[in-house]
Amino acid sequence: xxxxxxxxxxxxxxxxxxxxxxxxxxxxxxxxxxxxxxxxxxxxxxxxxxxxxxxxxxxxxxxxxxxxxxxxxxxxxxxxxxxxxxxxxxxxxxxxxxxxxxxxxxxxxxxxxxxxxxxxxxxxxxxxxxxxxxxxxxxxxxxxxx
Length: 146
Known about the structure:
By secondary structure, the protein is an alpha/beta fold. The protein folds into two domains: about 10-95, no CATH class; about 100-140, no CATH class. Helices cover about 35% and strands about 15% of the residues. It is built from four helices and eight strands. The chain has helices at about 35-45, 50-60, 65-85, 130-140, and strands at about 10, 20, 30-35, 85-90, 95, 100-105, 110, 130. It has a three-stranded mixed beta sheet with strand order 2-4-3. A three-stranded antiparallel beta sheet has the order 7-6-8. Strand 6 (about 100-105) and strand 7 (about 110) form a beta hairpin. Helix 1 packs across helix 3 (about 65-85). It starts with 7 loop residues before the first strand and ends with a helix. About 20% of the residues are buried. Belongs to the UPF0251 family. It comes from Peptoclostridium acidaminophilum DSM 3953. This is UPF0251 protein EAL2_c22040. Pfam families: DUF134 (PF02001).
């Protein structure tokens, strides 16, 4: 039996999550899906220029796992660029401490474990979830306190 996959620590979420080659209609092109942790690996290594050990430590994985993640990410990116594919940033197996999320309906406060937790509360399934900082403001605003 295989060992369960560890969550990878992520400290960044992009605002733009879909990229299409210029001049090609979205409906006519293939796409690749880049996982959130793959983007994080490239960000740490290629933008912040950390070494493999530092990157692995930040993502809370082994050096070999980090290398596997970044190799897969780079292969996907090169494929998209050379073959003119769209790039969707979505999904993965990650956790973050950047922001706790609050469910407006049930009040559950939680750290996200998967990308879908940003869209639905893991307790009640409500889609009314916000970053806790925004949720506090929203709740106060709705009550007329802001």
